[in-house]
Amino acid sequence: MTEDQNDDLTNDQNEPQETITRVTGMYKDWFLDYASYVILERAVPAIEDGFKPVQRRIMHSMKDLDDGRYNKVANIVGHTMQYHPHGDASIADAMVQIGQKDLLIDTQGNWGNILTGDRAAASRYIEARISKFGLDVVFNPKITEWQASYDGRRKEPINLPVMFPLLLAQGGEGIAVGLSTKILPHNFIELIDASIKHLQGKRFTILPDFPTAGIADFSNYNDGLRGGKVRVRSKISQLDKNTLVITELPFGTTTSSLIDSILKANEKGKIKVKKIEDNTAAEVEILVHLPSGLSPDKTIDALYAFTSCESSISPLGCVIEDNKPLFVGVTEMLRRSTDNTVQLLKQELEIRLGEFEEQWHFASLERIFIENRIYRDIEEEETWDGVISAIDNGLKPHIKHLKRAVTTEDIARLTEIRIKRISKFDIDKAQQKIDALEDQIAEVKHHLAHLIDYAIAYFTRLKKEYGEGRERKTEIRTFDDVDATKVIIRNTKLYVNREEGFIGTSLRRDEYVGDCSDIDDIIVFTKAGKMMVTKVDTKTFIGKDIIHVAIFKKKDKRTIYNMIYKDGAKGPSYIKRFAVTSVTRDREYDLTNGNKGSVCLYFSANPNGEAEVVSINLRQAGSIKKLKWDLDFSDILIKGRASKGNVVTKYPIKRVELKEKGVSTLKPRKIWFDDTVQRLNVDGRGELIGEFRGEDKLLIINQSGVIKTVTPEVTMHFDDDMIVMEKWEPKKPISAIYFNGEKELYYVKRFLIEQEGKEESFISEHPNSQLEIVSTDWKPMAEIVFAKERGKERKENLEINLEEFIDIKGLTAQGNQLTKDKVNQINLLDPLPYESNEAVHADDLEVVDEQEMSKSNGNNQDQDRAADKPNSSEDEDKDGEGQTTLF
Prior knowledge:
Layout: H1 3-14, H2 27-43, H3 53-65, E1 71-72, H4 73-80, H5 88-100, E2 105-108, E3 127-130, H6 132-137, E4 145-148, E5 155-159, H7 166-170, E6 172-175, E7 180-183, H8 188-199, E8 215-220, E9 229-233, E10 235-240, E11 243-248, H9 255-267, E12 275-278, E13 286-289, H10 296-306, E14 310-313, E15 318-321, E16 324-327, H11 330-371, H12 384-395, H13 408-415, H14 419-423, H15 427-449, H16 451-466, E17 475-476, H17 484-487, E18 492-497, E19 502-504, E20 511-516, E21 521-526, E22 530-535, E23 540-541, E24 546-551, E25 560-566, E26 573-578, E27 589-590, E28 599-606, E29 610-618, E30 628-632, E31 638-639, E32 646-649, E33 653-664, E34 669-674, E35 679-681, E36 687-692, E37 698-702, E38 706-710, E39 722-727, E40 734-740, E41 745-751, E42 760-761, E43 770-775, E44 781-786, E45 798-801, H18 802-805, E46 808-809, E47 816-819, E48 823-829, H19 850-855, E49 883-886
Parallel strand pairs: 8-17, 26-31, 41-46
Antiparallel strand pairs: 1-3, 2-3, 4-5, 6-7, 8-9, 9-14, 10-11, 11-13, 12-13, 15-16, 18-19, 18-20, 19-23, 21-22, 21-24, 22-27, 25-26, 25-28, 26-32, 28-49, 29-30, 29-33, 34-35, 34-36, 37-38, 37-39, 38-42, 40-41, 40-43, 41-47, 44-45, 44-48
């Protein structure tokens, strides 16, 4: 080892050295060449025809083999390998994907199932041919540009002359080096309509449509560009009280993957499922059986929150244009595709015009040649040049009307006319042919002069011939976000050690609090007047002498905490009412005035703002005259948790006793129905249903004749045939006219709901029975339009007061027959005026805004009642009494 080498070794050992090696030579460009190749030749479709290279080569090979009959896919794959140098597996997979889109290829055999995820049979067992639509819009060799195949033996198209927005109809997905593409499929008919609108100079909007149907929210679609998001959901409905049925899938999932996600969520305890049945065949049908006592509405939301029943798709519009990747939105893709179609149609017309003019030219020459017997001029000629010259001289007097000069090739074609044809030449038929060609030339020229109208007619024809059965499958809807904390199954038990100050799921020997989930937050209060919100864990220390533990609901303005506390060791006692809407997790909050020795004397948590009456008992000390009196919490203004409160007494309190349970001091909660998302809300979106207290119910009537009353919850789902939804007034009768399918007559009935919460049908169960009209007015009016019977005059329309027509009977009663005459139509008219004697609830206390409450901190003598204010809580009203702790 040399001295220099020793020095180098010493330096390496003492100090790490970085070596940068520059890539030169062939390596310098290889990676860029590879990346470019993958982007251009494999993963990303071209904007001109919407095909990736393998797809284009498959379609070209199928055209080569096309004879109208089915070909084995294995044969097509082998033929495509003459153009595509990447093996048979990639070709077969790409062909199956095209076939499953049911647009360009007619398939025969087992091509797999996009619903279940089942793979296609081996390529030797399945067959395919180009569909009629594919032949119509994809191929035209006369306007196709060609290039040599990879081995130079054959020619393949650079781009196919596709005259349709195929890329948007089929969608496309691919991952290349450094970029990817994800173009979602769109509806066939909507694409044609949008193309027509573009040609007419109108604005248009296109949204994806998925072959698996389902429901989708495209509010953040962003025109298919990077940064957009599409939320897709399966279609879930309630089969009965213990069974849900999934009938449509979100795009990108299969029945197998969906069921697996449900089972995993069940194993993790996020949802509860008794059994799952997969009855999917041609259409999706997954039955989800629920344990008894579980809310179907809540489970539907839980499926959306914790399983693949809802997923998000991030579109990314990337295509190849001029051998470069181009990021472009779907609107621009459609414009370019439509403009390209117009240019292809123009090229097609120009070629057709040239062909017609060439036919007209030769037909005219042929007529001149035969009619003027010019063929006799060549009898004496002995050389070919002489023949050409003789015919040329013979034609010259008769060709002034021709549109181009006569060439040697034209004369050569005249010499090839057979004697038999000359002998049978019919001048009239020849003229008819020329006239027909002139009409065709005029028609093509007209189309070229009115190219946009021609293109619109072309798209209209496509829609008429191929649009049947291609209506939109995916329902467009705006989704409400599902609050996971409201729908998760609480299957973990929470325990508390009040004395030592611990809460957690592992304290099985201590006091059981209730069920919770691993994503819940827990709110805890201690006797020292401290409060904390913390996440569920196995064991968490809060503080000694815990007095209240519950699951914390964020933004909950309806849960009101009533509290009396002693300020310091010798200070006065205070009373306060407050709500906890938002806090910082794991931070300790002091609800007292902060002095050492403060203690909570009385505490209650009231889920609906109840205000109880308590008795204050003082200790005997000095000259106190009044040792006991009652205190009503409803007289106390609801403020923020940081407020000091109002003084109860400056003397020591012996004990506080609950004297009388209270009623809610909050205003009735206003509930709206948002028709866009088909959900209830308390945020003022949609139509106001009414003001609801804890005991109030919602009346729902469906077109099928089913009626029920339910407690309004923001998690509720509604059937598509719902026709009535309003606040239920138990004393108000429901009036209905229905057609009895068994007796084939119309009946009228009026009834009251006898059992709350029960779903019942109030029309007969015959399959032909149907509900005509239903009204919840006190005095409804109906109009009967009679049908005209043969040989009789049509009866005049009849107006009926349903209140006078029939008395109130039971829900299951048949009712009174309306008429024996044939009825054409029954209309519901404006009701008669009626004044209800229902008692009106007085407005009560409402929670003051958190910021306003903090401003009033320290104002401990304010006894004025807070002004009423609309409530915006998203939590449901709950009947029941507040939980009380007495010290």
